[in-house]
Amino acid sequence: MNHLHPARRRTAHLVxxxxxxxxxxxxxxxGGVEGTPGAVGLRDPYFPGLGNGGYDVTHYGLELDVDPxxxxxxxxxxxxxxxxxxxxxxxxxxxxxxxxxxxxxxxxAAVNRxxxxxxxxxxxxxxxxxxxxxxFTAVVRYSGSxxxxxxxxxxxxx
Length: 158
Known about the structure:
Blueprint: E1 9-14, E2 24-26, E3 55-67, E4 72-83, E5 90-93, E6 98-104, E7 107-108, E8 110-114, E9 117-121, E10 135-144, E11 149-150, E12 156-157
Antiparallel strand pairs: 1-3, 2-5, 3-4, 4-10, 5-9, 6-7, 6-10, 8-9, 11-12
């Protein structure tokens, strides 16, 4: 149900590194899916918590419904990535917004939230798609009032 004015609907197709504070990072869950979580962070001296040692993002797609008067947005992030190891779970960064649901390879994924870290654990029948060298797609639906985020370099995001 889209109650927002059509002029407020925006669709963006972005490529790495970051899109709306979403970046894939290593996770810490298993649940029938073989492999291990990707490493947390890439040890970048300026952004040590960003990045992922378990896969490379090849595409970010964002679909946003924005109501500036109400300071509210509803979004869907579609992330395509190639596994660089067998993965059992992975993280997304998401600050200040509520997760309404997530899928990996079209199947509901278990979602765990700890602060701005969102762990996605794919269904066991998606495990073949998370093998090293394979490409997979994750979709996250979220909503809420966006917050301004200050990066370690002092720049403002979101």
